[in-house]
Amino acid sequence: MADKKLLVIDEGTTSTRVMLFAPDGRRVASEQRGLTQHYPGPGLVEHDAEEIWTLSLECARAMVAKAGGADRVAAIGITNQRETIIFWSRRTGKALAPAIVWQDRRTGDLCRSLQEAGREAMIQAKTGLLLDPYFSASKIAWALEHWPQLKQAGADLLVGTVESWLVYRLTGGLHISDATNASRTMLMNITSGRWDQELLDLWDVPAAMLPEIVDCAGEYGSTDPDLFGSPIAITGMAGDQQAASIGQACLNPGDTKSTYGTGAFILTNTGEKLQHSKHRLLSTIARQIEGKRHYALEGSVFVAGSLIKWLRDDLGLLRDAAESEQLARTVEDNGGVYLVPALSGLGAPHWRPDARAAISGLSFASNRAHIARAALEAMAHQTHDLMSAFAADGARWERLKIDGGMVANDWLSQDLADMLDLQVERPHFIETTALGAAMLAGVGCGLFGSLDEASAMRGEVEGFDPKIDAKLRETRLSGWRDAVRAVLRD
Ligand code: ADP
Q1: What does the pLDDT look like over 437-485, one tens digit per residue?
Q2: Angle between helix 162-171 and 49-67 (nearest 10)
Q3: What region, left, alpha or beta, does residue 380 occupy, with left being phi > 0 and alpha being psi -120 to 50 degrees?
Q4: How far is the CA of 123 from the centre of ligand 1 (A)?
Q5: Cβ–Cβ contacts within 10 Å for residue 198, how many?
Q6: Ligand 1 atom with the shortest distance to the CA of 13
Q7: What are phi and psi of 480, to 5 degrees?
């Protein structure tokens, strides 16, 4: 077993990646395909579920071949974009409608009306989530009402998040969802770990179309023998942010990771105790193993790396993302320039979808380096706001483990340490999402006795220590607070 590989399917929002890991954590090979984004109207974001399946299968077949055949693969782990919802036929296994993606805002009115009807407190108490179109339930309710083929399908209709869909197709009919993904649907009671009848009634979702909720590690089933030559066991599953948390070895209460990709997602492990936020953070399931749930508080920032992409592609201010670092280093400070990146509203802890971005403090002395620097500084500023919300909820950070495409930027990593006044830890291998799924699959197939043991896969890390003095930090934070206040006032 120890010389076999773990195969991970990382089904992201913009691409499908399949990787092979050695049990010591080395990534041996990887195959990637871009996923078509469909924008059928303002605020609408869809994927083609059949494309998700076809690309995953293509990449997985390439990786099985690379491993030397299905017999050389110890197990499969799956991690995925969360909240996105897929509808398919029990009989044919084919998708019956487009996948509605987590970014889709079509259910804004529906969520607002339930908010006005005073339902958010009950929902938050049961699910840990806030009434926002981000989560799956309103998307399912909308689809059942507006897409006649779903109503016509009757008992043939199945629904699930992306990992559920992949498992159904890989196994030829196993309908399951892991507890972390289920916790993002807004239909699961995260205390009991089961679908909740009151929530199913609220959203008018029949229980019969939902998957069975299972652990994040275990022998769920095997792939259809026709797919890869012989069956491969599927033994690990978690939503992307929870997988990243595991990949960062955030296994104990207080452990915190922040992923800076398109958006930024911060999770603090709160242990076996579900903790409700009083500061507009989300409570979520961090993992469930042998029926035991561990919880996390989560802060979601909608705009992180997408800000750098916007500066590059839409403003033409940067040649490439890495130039942001060179530019930031050419100026001594931000020159009084602040950038509040509310390009698609503000997420946690503000939750103001109507807020719009602003660049403030400009003068003739400002140049593009100041703007690039203000953009990078915004990451530490946003993280600082969340650190305060987490602390107010009783989850104090002792250090921060960072990952995601943006943290290739050394200046940004140091600025996080400086502004948070914390040690920041960056693993050499920053694909922590896939790594977490590999660890879960390794535990599920018995390669490791526990996640603690599996966490040796994480490998070496690099530390960034705070270097600036408190006065400088306070000056920056007060400038940021003024800039946010101006944006929230509009
Ligand atoms: P996702 O997984 O959400 O697609 P990634 O983790 O791959 O995103 O991160 C990509 C993002 O990181 C892009 O939005 C890009 O603009 C940003 N990025 C990449 N390299 C750098 C860099 N050196 N400095 C700042 N931002 C960067």
Answers
A1: 999 999 999 999 999 999 999 989 999 999 999 999 999 999 999 999 9
A2: 60
A3: alpha
A4: 33
A5: 11
A6: 4
A7: -65, -45
Site to substitute for ligand 1 among 406, 407, 411, 435, most atoms within 8 A of C-beta: 406
Mean pLDDT of 295-305: 92
Q: Which helix (H) or strand (E) holds 301?
A: strand 292-301
pLDDT of 422: 96
Considering only CA atoms, which of 78, 32, 39, 22 is closest in space to residue 55?
32
Residue 253: asked if its preceding bond is cis (omega within 30°), the reply is no
Going by alpha carbons, the residue nearest to atom 13 of ligand 1 is 305
Strands 73-80 and 233-239: parallel
Of 274, 141, 130, nearest in space to 202 by CA: 141
What is the Å distance from ligand 1's center to 198 Cα?
40
DSSP single-letter state for residue 13? S
pLDDT more than 70, % of the chain: 99
Model confidence at 280, pLDDT cuts 50, 70, 90, reads confident
Tell me the residue length of the chain: 490
What digits encode the pLDDT tens for the residues 97-155? 999 999 888 998 999 999 999 999 999 999 999 998 989 999 999 999 999 999 999 99
**Average per-residue pLDDT in the chain?**
95
Ligand 1 pocket, CB under 6 A: 12, 14, 261-262, 305-306, 308-309, 321-322, 324-325, 404-406, 408-409
Q: What's at 339, amino acid-wise?
A: L
The residues spanned by each domain of the chain are: 5-241
Superfamily of domain 5-241: ATPase, nucleotide binding domain (3.30.420.40)
**For helices 323-330 and 368-392, what crossing angle results, to 10°?**
100
DSSP class of 155: G
Summarised one tens digit per residue, pLDDT across range 155-178 is 999 999 999 999 999 999 999 999
> Which of 383, 419, 389 lies closest to 301 in space, CA to CA?
383
Taking CA atoms only, the protein residue closest to ligand 1 atom 17 is: 305
Ligand 1 atom 9: the closest Cα is on which residue? 405
Of all protein residues, whose CA lies closest to atom 22 belonging to ligand 1? Answer: 322
Query: In the numeric block, which tokens belong to residue 103?
Result: 């970014």
